[in-house]
Amino acid sequence: MTACLIGLGIVAPPPAGAATSASTTETRPFEPGEDDAGGVLTPPRSNAPSRVPAAGLPRPVGRVVVTDAAAKRAEGLSLRDTRDANGGNQFSLEPPDQALCVGGTEVIEGVNNVFATYSTSGARTSAPQAYTPFWNDGVAEVDRTTGTYGPFVSDPKCYFDPVLHRFFMTELQLGTNPTTGDFTGDSYENIAVSRTATPGTSAADWYLYRIDVRNDGTHGTPSHAGCPCLGDQPLIGADTYGFYVTTNEFSIDGPEFNGAQIYAFDKAALAAGTLRYQRIETNGTPLAEGTAYSVQPATSPVAADWSTANNGTEYALSALDFTATLDDRIAAWALTNTRSLTTDHPAVTVSRTVIGSEVYGQPPSVQQKSGPYPLGQSLKDKLNLLQSNDDRMNQVVYAGGKLWSGVNTAAKTENGPTTTAIAYFVVRPTATPTSVSATMAHQGYVSVNRNSVMYPSIGVAPGGTRAAMVFTLAGPGYHPSTAYVRLSSSGAPTGPVSIYGAGTKPADGFTGYPQYGGNGQERWGDYSAAVADPGGTVWVAAEYVPGTFGYPPYLANWGTAIGAIG
Questions:
Q1: Most buried by CB count within 10 Å: which residue of 55, 168, 321, 479?
Q2: Please, is 343 exposed, middle or buried when counting C-beta atoms within 10 Å of its C-beta (0-12, 13-18, 19+)?
Q3: Burial zone of 475 (CB within 10 Å; 0-12 exposed, 13-18 middle, 19+ buried)
Q4: How many Å apart are CA 96 and CA 156, to the nearest integer?
Q5: For this UniProt entry, which residues form the secretion signal (predicted)?
Q6: Strand order in 402-412's β-sheet?
Q7: Does the domain at residues 10-40+57-87+97-440+449-565 carry the CATH identifier 1.10.150?
Q8: What single string gives the DSSP state of each residue in 221-235?
């Protein structure tokens, strides 16, 4: 795994040599893509698809693609919503990243710096709420009247608890100098828990908590190498007793990567307005020949799927491709004695094991179908490729005694070049109070011939009776679109790749263009989202290009689409 801030969204600096417009762009020093004086870096330029050796790559059979427009439930949040929220006191930012949770009659969707509520019929029931003022008592991401900066937030997640009937939201936050926007070394994980089963977007509807994760020995934190650090891309899970947040710990100023960190909370206490948690010291947990990263804890659709063995057990999965090449192993994790989180002396035990898997590996960048791209054309540039990031473990669900998840992977399709596909896993874990073992119940690939599918999330119905996987579909034959495939109780795909949000134009975002610090590869999500409601409907959300706005005046044209698969 490369030690870079890959989970952070990128804020748009002005193009080199171009006039700035206060209505569309801001320079923010020390952001990814900028140097330490706030100037724009111009990395080497390439618009050619990544060249990945074909030897040893998976060679799955591509699936048929159809359209299922009826599955689309709502137009989700977009770059336009992100930029225009809070009276326009927001940055242009990509990728969106994706939060989604469903409970009762309410759906909550979040992207990197805004969230909104919806009814289960698909009607949006709130205006987009900017996350920065939500977490920070009204402080704006950027105040365009005074020219001051607020905290930087990124990587939202969302969860609805089927017993407590409360929504949980999390997000990374970094402190900034209000005058310059420079990072100050302050680093937090924000947690919000709704006070009712039907919250609005006002902070008054939520209990708000903040965990200091700078971990440099100050502010009551432990002392870790290279810190102050940030808890990049916080991942969430829950079991009967606990709510869990894991992070990838990077030095804010240096190259150090301290691996996955685990924070375990008394779930019921959070829902009642009390913060009680255990910071589980990992100290760069070794895993096989590397350091554990992106340990993804599991959520479950209903309480019957949780494990109460070992005084409470929470499971997790992680990938093991430490060299960004190919691997054929994954890791299963167990957090046991989780009931102790409800006491004044929590003592959760962590164990892990490595099991063999199908081959997966670092995915290539993704070619786009040609079409108009006015921002790039105005810069006299080539059409961006899309970043498929890496092959870390995505969202994990524990249902029917099995763990379901997937990763991006390079694959060789039947009649074309190496593309991005999805490797997925269905794992059956077993834990004792101090150890965990696991077997691979099912595994496979999802691919589309000559095109790419990326950023999978699997939503699983109660008891693991069926599931659906959501992702973005893009390539020479498709503008970036949201799509899904159904899975049986065993995990095998049971139908075609179904487009539910058809992209109508190429992605045309600033992060790919060299004038904005790009290298020809546009940021395209870090993850999607899928969740089953108690009735078994799988709700999905992923990134696509609706084609309803773009440049001018917006510096990107991504949107999201929310679907419901019965």
A1: 168
A2: exposed
A3: buried
A4: 9
A5: 1-18
A6: 349-361, 326-336, 313-319, 296-299, 396-399, 402-412, 418-431, 436-446
A7: no
A8: --B-TT-SEEEEEEE
Place of tokens 């540039």: 381
The dihedral over CA atoms of 261, 291, 96, 213, expressed in degrees to the nearest 10, equals 30
116 in Cβ contact with 124 (< 8 Å): yes
Residue 180 corresponds to which amino acid?
T
In the structure encoding, which two tokens stand for residue 201, read together?
Answer: 């977007």
Record the tokens describing residue 385, joined without a space. 């490729």
Nearest by Cα to 27 from 491, 516, 483, 412 = 516
Residue-wise pLDDT tens digits, 384-407: 999 999 999 999 999 999 999 999
Three-state DSSP at 70 gives helix
Separation CA 266–CA 496 (nearest Å): 41
The residues, any chain, with a CB within 8 Å of residue 345's CB and separated by 6 or more, are none
Which pLDDT tens digit goes with each residue over 185-227?
Answer: 999 999 999 999 999 999 999 999 999 999 999 999 999 999 9
Distance separating alpha carbons of residues 411 and 363, to the nearest angstrom: 8
In contact, 525 and 541? CB cutoff 8 Å? no
Tell me what pLDDT residue 286 has: 84
Of 298, 238, 436, 99, give the one whose Cα is nearest residue 107.
99
Closest by Cα among 95, 261, 81, 92 to 189: 261
Q: Which of 192, 207, 194 is nearest to 166 (CA)?
A: 194
**496 sits in which H/E element:** none
Of the candidates 132, 88, 126, which has an alpha carbon nearest to the alpha carbon of residue 114? 132
- Please give the Cα distance from 17 to 311 (Å, whole number): 62
Residue 122, both tokens: 């698909």
The Cα–Cα gap between 193 and 129 comes to 16
DSSP-derived secondary structure letter, 65: E
pLDDT single digits (tens) 44-98: 344 554 444 557 899 999 999 999 999 999 999 999 999 999 999 999 999 999 9
| Residue that wins the pLDDT comparison between 252 and 28 | 252
* Helices of type H across 223-297: 267-271
In order of 19, 245, 337, the CA distances from 227 in angstroms are 37, 19, 30
* SS3 of residue 527 by DSSP: coil
How deeply is 409 buried, as exposed, middle or buried, from its count of CB atoms within 10 A (0-12, 13-18, 19+)? Answer: buried
Helix (H, G, I), strand (E, B) or coil at 87: helix
User: Residue 29: what pLDDT?
Assistant: 25
Residues facing residue 355 across a β-bridge:
330
Q: Is the pLDDT of residue 37 over 50?
A: no
